[in-house]
Amino acid sequence: MTENQTVQQKSVRRNRVAAAACFAAALITATVVGTQSATADGTAHRTAAAAARSAAVAAPGLGSAHLVQSEDYFGKGLNPVGATVALNGRQALSACSGEETMRDLTKGGATAYASVNWTFATDGMLTESAASAPTKAAAATWEKQLVALVQDCQDEPAGHWRYGAAHTLNTAGGTARWYQAYNGDGTATGGVAVLRSGARVAVVELTGRPTTSVAGIATAALNRLSS
Q1: What pLDDT is attached to residue 75?
Q2: For 188, left (φ over 0), alpha (ψ -120 to 50), or beta?
Q3: How far apart are CA 68 and CA 126, in angstroms?
Q4: Is the sign of the CA dihedral 6, 9, 15, 16 positive or negative?
Q5: Going by DSSP bridges, is the β-strand pair 174-182/188-197 parallel, antiparallel, or unpaired?
Q6: What is the reported pLDDT for 168?
Q7: CA distances from 18 to 35, 78, 99, 149, 212 (A)
Q8: Residues 6 or more apart from 139 whose CB is under 8 A from it?
Q9: Extended strands (E) in 38-136
Q10: Rounded Cα gap, residues 4 and 183, in angstroms
Q11: What are the start-end ranges of the H helices in 87-213?
Q12: Total Cβ atoms within 10 A of residue 3
């Protein structure tokens, strides 16, 4: 890849990060399933969860139930109001992947795909893309490719948005690598995690939010993926 191509690619990634908040707002008015204002008794959480579960019929081995649910946000300072679920593998993977999708990364070789966009009562959004591989070996290969995509945005010039150091998470259901994200001024703002459970892989990212429990989100996502 030439120097110009590298610069253009990273410019696209940074533009995606800057547009995340605007995209979240657009989802609320255009494509969110089950949008509702948050209430003290958690009605919006339950409505959004029900919408996410009913938005798509689970494909064999992988479906919306294996993605982050509204109850996973409790205690993490996030108030979900809506979710859009898809099973076509065509959602962009992360802020660092440009326009690459899970279908692109797997070259269409997954046995099933699932993705979700969660929007919140305040700025920010959470995206998750998952795929089920035909073998555990294929899943391990895809996991390495996802990690490489994320780590490509660790080494950035001073003053640029970037991902921080990798942290390893192990549960009974699988493994994850999670990374805090930082604005150009060094302020923590969400983060990303790459997950693998058996023959399933996923990438989950929180954008446009102040620092929160990225490890907690990664743990919840991994538990869902392995269920």
Answers
A1: 83
A2: beta
A3: 9
A4: negative
A5: antiparallel
A6: 96
A7: 24, 20, 14, 18, 19
A8: 133, 196, 198, 199, 200, 201
A9: 80-86, 112-120, 125-132
A10: 24
A11: 102-105, 136-151
A12: 7
Give the Cβ contact number of residue 159 at 10 Å: 10
pLDDT at 33: 35
Tens digits of residue pLDDT in 46-75: 444 444 444 344 335 799 999 999 999 888
Mapping DSSP to helix (H, G, I), strand (E, B) and coil, where does residue 189 land? strand
Stated pTM of the model? 0.76
- pLDDT, residue 99, reads 87
User: Bigger pLDDT: 194 or 172?
Assistant: 194
What average pLDDT does the chain have? 79
Taking the C-alpha atoms of residue 58 and residue 193, their distance in angstroms, rounded to an integer, is 23
The number of C-alpha atoms within 13 Å of 77 and in the hemisphere containing its C-beta is: 11
Q: How far apart are CA 182 and CA 210, in angstroms?
A: 10
Structure tokens at 170: 């192990």
* pLDDT tens profile 114-158: 999 999 988 789 999 999 999 999 999 999 999 999 999 998 888
225's CB contacts (< 8 A; 6+ apart) are 66, 67, 130, 173, 174, 195, 197, 200, 202
Secondary structure class of 96 (helix, strand, coil): coil
Q: In angstroms, rounded to a whole number, what is the distance separating the alpha carbons of residues 113 and 130?
A: 6
- Residue whose token pair is 């070789």: 109
Say how far residue 121 (Cα) sits from the centre of its chain: 18
